[in-house]
């Protein structure tokens, strides 16, 4: 086994070689602007299933144009490229599949109990331990869908910026056992591959697996959409992964992740 505190290697990510769809090719970087950007930029020239992993990102991307910051070597910073025929129906469920796969890996390899917060947060207790950012672009004859995940593994409290104090955590902070990034990365990719390889047959199961781990349902949420604030109770997610909110003012409304902000 490679050094548990050293950079992730190909053998860490894919100990048994390529998976069914994921792992045809791997780009491992010490430093990169963003693993999502790396795959977006080269999407047309890289094979379906390519993985990008980095120890450090200088321009890590979060949802809604936010930054994703992590100290060198402390996280899993992973992206997976999938080539889809248009219309790429996978784009609506890839965030759910990636978040569920992260939970499955954490559940199987640590003593933590992760949950999900719509649309893309992996949490432990009330604190965020990981996030998913799915992006896509058209390439000749197809759509390149990129699923990126950042998972805080080895951070300690002082590693988080002041504005995240009390709102972010890591597996090492939450677990009573040592956390090893290599096996976690490999299991996450295996779990994601199992969903992605047959996603068109698993639509119901994906939503069910996400739903079972979601901390939001029945909870009161405040959302901002188009500059307007909405309050209500989270009911469910729709087939396209929109959140369905029972509004305090009456009626139900669907909110899309790409245009909605949560007030913590
Ligand atoms: C969020 O919670 O806002 C999503 C964060 C996603 C971060 C990951 S880290 C690997 C991949 N590369 C990026 O630039 N972003 C995603």
Give descriptors for this structure.
264 residues; alpha+beta; five-stranded antiparallel beta sheet; 6 helices; 12 strands; globular; binds biotin
Largest sheet: 7 strands, mixed
Oligomeric organization of the protein chains: single chain
Number of helices: 6
Number of strands: 12
Q: Radius of gyration, Cα only, in angstroms?
A: 18 Å
**Numbering strands along the chain, what is their spatial order in the largest sheet?**
1-2-3-7-6-5-4
| Order of SSEs | HEHEEHEEEEHHHEEEEE
Report strand %.
25-35%
Bound molecules: biotin
Structural class: alpha+beta
Low-confidence stretches: none
Helix percent reads: 10-25%
Taking the alpha carbons of the first and last residues, their distance comes to 41 Å
What is the general shape?
globular
Mean pLDDT over the full residue set: 95
Would you write up a description of this structure?
It is a single chain. The chain is built from six helices and twelve strands. It has 264 residues and is an alpha+beta fold. The strands form two sheets. It has a seven-stranded mixed sheet with strand order 1-2-3-7-6-5-4, sandwiched between helices. The chain has a five-stranded antiparallel sheet with strand order 11-10-9-8-12, with no helix packed on it. Helix 3 crosses helix 6 (203-213). The longest helix has 20 residues, at 90-109. The radius of gyration is 18 Å and the shape is globular. The structure holds biotin. The site of biotin has 21 residues, from helix 2, strand 3, strand 6 and strand 7.
């Amino acid at each position: 086994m490679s050094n548990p505190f050293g950079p992730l290697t190909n053998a860490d990510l894919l100990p048994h070689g390529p998976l069914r769809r994921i792992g045809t090719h791997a780009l491992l970087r010490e430093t990169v602007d963003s693993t999502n950007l790396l795959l977006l930029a080269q999407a047309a020239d890289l094979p379906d299933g390519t993985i990008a992993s980095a120890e450090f990102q200088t321009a890590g991307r979060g949802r809604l144009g936010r930054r994703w910051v992590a100290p060198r070597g402390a996280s899993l910073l992973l992206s997976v490229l999938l080539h889809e025929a248009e219309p790429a129906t996978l784009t609506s469920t890839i965030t759910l599949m990636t978040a569920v796969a992260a939970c499955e890996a954490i559940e199987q390899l640590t003593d933590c109990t992760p949950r999900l917060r719509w649309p893309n947060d992996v949490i432990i207790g009330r604190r965020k331990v990981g996030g998913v950012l799915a992006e896509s672009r058209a390439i000749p004859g197809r759509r390149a869908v990129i699923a990126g995940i950042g998972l805080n593994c080895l951070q300690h409290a002082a590693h988080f910026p002041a504005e995240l104090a009390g709102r972010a955590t890591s597996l090492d902070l939450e677990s009573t056992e040592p956390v090893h990034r290599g096996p976690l990365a490999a299991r996450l990719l295996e779990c994601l591959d199992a969903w992605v390889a047959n996603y068109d047959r698993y639509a119901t199961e994906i939503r069910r697996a996400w739903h079972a781990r979601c901390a939001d349902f029945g909870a009161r949420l405040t959302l901002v959409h188009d500059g307007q604030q909405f309050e209500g109770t989270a009911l469910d997610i729709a087939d396209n992964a929109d959140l369905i909110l029972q509004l305090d003012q009456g009626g139900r409304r669907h909110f899309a992740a790409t245009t909605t902000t949560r007030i913590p």
